[in-house]
Each structure stands twice: as structure tokens, then as C-alpha cells.
Amino acid sequence: MPLDTGDIDDGGAAQAAGDELVALRPVRVVLSADGNVGAALRQAREALGLAEDDIAQATRVRAPYIAAIEAFDFDALPARPFVVGYVRAYAKALGVDSEAVVARLHAEAPKVDGKLRSPGGVRHDAFAAVRLLLVIGAGLAAAVVAWNLWRRMDHAAAHPVAVVAPVTPASPSRAAAPFGPASIGAPLPTPPEATTPPVYVTPGLAPLAAASAGADASGAHRADVPDPGVGAPFVAAGPIYGAPAPGAGVVLQARKSTTLVIRGPGGAVYFARLLSPGEAWRAPAASGLTVDVGNPQSVEIYVGGVSKGRLGRVQTPITDLLAP
Questions:
Q1: Neighbours of 316 (CB within 10 A)
Q2: Residue 99 falls within a domain, yes or no?
């Protein structure tokens, strides 16, 4: 039976709001009563010269579903509510009464079992989210276990475990305090001092015996030696360090207490001492030596056994003292 009848309009079909195919319908469409509603929709589409893609573009329904509606193939279509919506959109695109077409669909379509199928193109997996959560949980657990193992190995490497010997409990006879008054024995002797190292003596630089009588070789404090004056002969007044040969060219004698450091090439220290008044140092026959004193005016210079006066600088090469 026809769902919509009428004569051809002079101005064309009625234009509905949002109707994208109104320009393609010069006449009002009448569905055929023969066959099913899908075949009637197909005949109306062909009568208008429209293709399946035209209907699919106008209804936003995939072209294979349009073909399945026209073939009345419900196995190729999604769930029944989606099919009803597709047919309603198809009818609106042709300009016929969509509710009448849907009513005809319900009357002609076979009964369904009541089970809803997923819309086409959608894959439904009820356990997909559960599997994803299980995979994420397993990954997190493995990461936590690996991190703890790495922390334990790093801690064990940085802090090795010390083996502690078991403590033997004291016997009752030793642990128990004796009864009665305690007796104190004789005091023990003072232990020898073990923290002070012996005085270091440079090999070959031991003090020589003083040439003059009454010289104090013990290094005890002595009074300042008077100034002999330039040209006066050398007179030993205390220990003489350095070269043992009496004929050495340069002799340095302290008039007042002062430090004396003899340095070699590169700053190496050959001799270092706090000289007391009267103590002297005899230069060896080595080259490149430098005299470093705390107070130059406290040291008398003797060259060839004759006084040349006091030192003028804190640091003086031996070769400068031999210069005329």
C-alpha cells in the first residue's frame, strides 16, 4: 500500500529543514506496496536517480547498511534500535513519512530474539579493561620488586656486614664481687712515654766537637755572642754543623738565636735548625745551595776563616757569599 500519495507539485517537493536531497527530488515520492519496505525504499531511490552513496552521505549511514536495508538482510545490520534509526533517516532523505515507514518496518520485519548486537564497526570485549588492568598491575609489581632488589644489593655493597664474635659470659666466680674490705696494692711505676718520637738526626750533619774549650755541645741556652767585627778570625763558640772539613770556604755563625734552613736545587731542604748563639754551620763543597734565615742580622759570615760581616738578606745563595 502507498504511504504517501499526491500529485506532482508545480514548485517541486516540500522542503524540510535540513533536507540535503530536496534539489534531487522534483516529484513527491510514493513507496510501492509490493514487496517489503526495503525493496520499496530501493525502488523510490532508483526512481529519483540516486545512488546508495548519495543516501549514505545524506543520512550519515554507511553504504553497506543502506544496501542491507534494501535487501532486508538483518544479519548484516547491527542491533534492532540502530536499524530503526537507519530506516527513519533513509525515509527522511527520500522525503516520505518516516514514522509510517518505521511502522511498516515493524509490521514486516521478522521477530528478533531480544538480544542486542553491537553497532557495526564496534568490537565489544567485556574483559579487555580487566586484562589491561591486570597487565598494568603486573608491570607495576615487577617494577617494585626489581627496585627493592636493586636497593638491597646497593646497600649490601656499601655496608658490608661485620662478623661479630659471640660474647662469652663471665664466669660466676669472676663476676661476683668479693665480700669484705678491698685491699690496695703498691702503686705501679709510671709507664714510659710512648707518644714522643725520638729526635731525628740528619745523616752526616751531626754536630762536631767544639774547637774551643768550654763550648757547650748540649744545645742549652747561651748568651749572645759579641760582634767580632769585620776581618776577625773565626772562633768556635758552640757546635758546628754541616761539612766536617775545617778548610771549607763559608761558615755561618749565629750571634743571636735564629732559624737556619739550607735549601738545594728545586727547594729541597738539606739542613734545618734553630741555632743558638755561638752555633755554626759549615757549607759543604756542593753547588746550588741557598741560605734561608729568620733574622739576617743574627748571622755572621766567615769566608776563608775571616769575618765578612752579617747577612743582608733572608735568602742568599752560597755563591753570592763567596763573591769578593
A1: 18
A2: yes
HEC readout, the chain: CCCCCCCCCCCCCCCCCCCCCHHHCCCCCCCCCCCCHHHHHHHHHHHCCCCHHHHHHHHCCCHHHHHHHHHCCHHHCCCHHHHHHHHHHHHHHHCCCHHHHHHHHHHHCCCCCCCCCCCCCCCCCCCHHHHHHHHHHHHHHHHHHHHHHHHHHHHHHHCCCCCCCCCCCCCHHHHCCCCCCCCCCCCCCCCCCCCCCCCCCCCCCCCECCCCCCCCCCCCCCCCCCCCCCCCECCCCCCEEECCCCCCCEEEEECCCEEEEEECHHHCEEEEEEECCCCEEECCCCCCCEEEECCHHHEEEEECCEEEEECCCCEEEHHHHHCC
Residue 6 lies in a domain: no
Which structural domain, as residue segments, surrounds residue 61? 22-108
Chain centroid, CA 282 distance in Å: 62
Query: 303 falls in which pLDDT band (50, 70, 90)?
Result: confident
- Strands 280-282 and 240-242: what pairing? parallel
Per-residue pLDDT at 87: 92
Whether 157 is in a domain gets the answer no
Angle at 224 between CA 229 and CA 254, to 5 degrees: 70
pLDDT band at 188 (very low <50, low <70, confident <90, very high): confident
Residue 74 lies in a domain: yes
**Alpha-carbon gap, residue 3 to 87, rounded angstroms:** 14
63: cell is 553504504
Q: What is the CATH number of the domain that holds 92?
A: 1.10.260.40
- pTM for the structure as a whole: 0.34
**Considering its fold, how many domains does the chain have in total?**
2
Instruction: Give the CA distances from residue 280 to residues 9, 12, 160, 183, in Å, rounded to whole numbers and listed in that order.
Output: 143, 138, 59, 59
Which of 54, 79, 108 lies at the terminal end of a domain, its last residue? 108
Q: Can you name the residues that pair with 290 across neighbouring β-strands? A: 263, 317
